[in-house]
UniProtKB/TrEMBL annotation:
Tagged with keyword Ligase: yes
Family per record: Belongs to the class-I aminoacyl-tRNA synthetase family.
Catalysis performed (reactions): tRNA(Arg) + L-arginine + ATP = L-arginyl-tRNA(Arg) + AMP + diphosphate
EC main group: ligase
UniProt KW keywords: Aminoacyl-tRNA synthetase, ATP-binding, Cytoplasm, Ligase, Nucleotide-binding, Protein biosynthesis
EC identifiers of the protein: 6.1.1.19
Start and end residues of each Arginyl tRNA synthetase N-terminal domain: 6-87
Protein name, UniProt field: Arginine--tRNA ligase
Gene Ontology molecular-function annotations: ligase activity
Length: 586
């Protein structure tokens, strides 16, 4: 299956070679969308200077050499040298019939690569907040898309499950008692558990006289030493903290509808044993050096104020390890143990400098070969109406679960008003699908590295560029097929394109495979979101102007049902790649 532009490219290139000489056989035909035709060939403008001819004369020579019988109904030169091409409806129908017969609806299967993807990454014993929304949603969509393209995607949820705070958390767990209501907060309200431990620690730090062995802060620091030394009882308590947090993570992931599970947990702790070796190798090979008591890597090109070199600290002066050490162990593991061809990091944009220093250090050490590509999928902020980072009125980060619950409540209010005829259980299901879908689509429909304003009222609207609008198109197609008692998957009648809106819809459907492949190459789900919105608009125009069940002739009715069935397949597949559900009714 090929799109019109892909099919057209070699034909135009052959015409350029015939018109201007074989030296130009590989020239870019510069195919662009046109408001005056299906496509515009702009190659003449680019080639005019090279061949020493006016652009319109170049265009005329190319047109004279074009062989587009059966492909185009109209070929004309316009303006300074544009070539406008209008495709034959029969040719478009033939291409679309191939897509309709393809079980993948035109989406290619790419040569399989191993692609670890690092996303979500919450902290144990801390609630996920709105800042985790984008990395989780964008990362999950990219993972789904790469898998659909045939790649072996290895989800890596790099949770924060190690380090000094765990001494404090373990001691607090012992104080409140394992199995107590307070311990249960790790599942229902992790921040409350963490803050209670933090308050006790800070209070002990400020107490006079200095703490004794039984004071909370002293016990917490001692517990960190035991944890890092591998003390069995301390590790048991640490595992309990992690297990309780897993319950919380999984509840949120289930609510959000993402594909992360316990199998994908790859936290900081799994690299702990490798950290001393990382430091030893870098130091022994002269890549790292001791500076002010800390082991550091100084890389060319990384300077701060006054031109002073910026260090990547591999081991702190107190002997502890930081993010740089763990991240070096991580990239080494993903390349050598997981056999990565590409490694994706779906994390905040401010981490760019850190990641680049880690990757450059890993390349210098030989742990990151030149043929393995690390990619930072930079994540922008979610803003409130004041265009500042979205927070609660008290200034705290907004809890992600609370935000999702509010979205479902908003969607329920819309459904209760528009579909009071549906039973309560069904309305509750639809409200969840719409509410969660609305939040995810709002995030995915903008470039992942840009900011956007969070507006629930707009997100759950059934009109405009929203998730519910796309979901409504799917529900509308389901309704059409319910009326005739057919399964969309069983509809395969020949496609006829007699009306402009049929043709516009068909042309847009042909672009699905290219868009999915582009998302896999660029890691930009907003391109798929934009395509689906335009498809929804094309379908709405078709539905309003081209009667389906009341078509004048049976073959036209069957053709339009086939178009509807293909819209259904493309929309449900596309929504699934974004991580949105497709409601039965709306």
């Amino acid at each position: 299956m090929v799109s019109p532009l892909v099919a057209l490219t070699p034909k135009v290139q052959s015409a350029i070679a015939a018109a201007l000489g074989d030296d130009y056989r590989e020239a870019d035909p510069v195919l662009r969308p046109s408001q005056f035709a299906d496509v515009q060939v702009n190659a003449a403008l680019a080639l005019a200077k090279k061949v020493g001819m006016p652009p319109r004369d170049v265009a005329a020579k190319i047109v004279a050499a074009l062989d587009l019988d059966g492909v185009c109904d109209s070929v004309e030169v316009s303006g300074p040298g544009f070539i406008n091409l209008t495709f034959s409806s029969a040719w478009i129908a033939g291409l679309l019939q191939e897509v309709e017969a393809d079980e993948r609806a035109g989406v290619p299967l790419q040569p399989t690569q191993n692609i670890p993807i690092d996303y979500s990454a919450p902290n144990v014993a801390k609630e996920m907040h709105v800042g985790h929304l984008r990395t989780t949603v964008v990362g999950d969509s990219i993972a789904r898309t790469l898998e659909h393209l045939g790649h072996n995607v290895i989800r890596q949820n790099h949770i924060g499950d190690w380090g000094t705070p765990f001494g404090m958390l373990i001691e607090h767990l012992l104080d409140v008692g394992e199995g107590s209501d307070e311990a249960g907060l790790l599942v229902t309200d992790p921040n409350a558990f963490y803050q209670a431990a933090r308050v006790k620690f800070d209070a002990a730090e400020k107490a006079e006289p200095a703490g004794s062995a039984g004071d909370f802060n002293v016990r917490a620091r001692s517990r960190v030493v035991l944890l890092q030394a591998g003390d069995a009882e301390t590790l048991r308590l640490w595992n309990e903290l992690v297990d309780l947090s897993k319950v919380y993570f999984n509840k949120l992931y289930s609510t959000l509808g993402v594909t992360l599970t316990d199998l994908h947990l790859a936290g900081e702790s799994m690299y702990n044993d490798a950290l001393p070796g990382i430091c030893e190798e870098l130091e022994s090979r002269g890549i790292a050096e001791v500076s002010d008591g800390a082991l550091c890597v100084f890389l060319d090109g990384y300077t701060g104020r006054e031109g002073k070199p910026v260090p990547l600290i591999i081991r702190k002066s107190d002997g502890g390890y930081g993010y740089a050490t763990t991240d070096l162990a991580t990239i080494k593991y993903r390349v050598h143990d997981l056999g990565a061809h590409r490694v994706l990091y779906v994390i905040g944009a401010p981490q760019s400098l850190h990641l680049n220093m880690v990757w450059d250090t890993a390349r210098k050490a030989g742990w990151l070969p030149d043929d393995v590509v690390p990619v930072h999928v930079q994540i922008g902020n979610v803003l409130g109406e004041d265009r500042k980072i979205l927070k609660t009125r008290s200034g705290a980060p907004l809890r992600l679960m609370a935000l999702l619950e509010e979205a479902v409540d908003k969607a329920r209010a819309v459904i209760d008003e528009t579909r009071p005829d549906l039973d309560d259980t069904l309305r509750a299901t639809i409200a969840r699908q719409i509410g969660i879908g609305a939040v995810k689509y709002a995030d995915l429909s903008v470039a992942h590295d840009s900011e956007y304003v969070f507006d629930l009222d707009r997100m759950v609207a059934l009109t405009g560029n929203t998730g519910p609008y796309l979901q409504y198109v799917v529900a509308r197609v389901r309704s059409i097929f319910r009326q005739v008692g057919l399964d969309p998957a069983a509809q395969h009648a020949p496609i006829l394109l007699g009306e402009l809106h049929e043709r516009a819809l068909a042309t847009h459907l042909l672009g699905f495979g290219d868009v999915v492949a582009e998302v896999g190459d660029t890691y930009e789900p907003h391109r798929l979101a934009g395509y689906l919105f335009e498809l929804a608009q094309a379908f709405s125009a078709f539905y309003e102007n081209c009667p389906v069940l009341k078509a004048e002739h049976d073959e036209v009715k069957e053709s339009r049902l086939t178009l509807c069935a293909l819209v259904f397949r493309v929309m449900t597949t596309g929504l699934d790649l974004l991580g949105l559900e497709s409601p039965e009714r709306m």
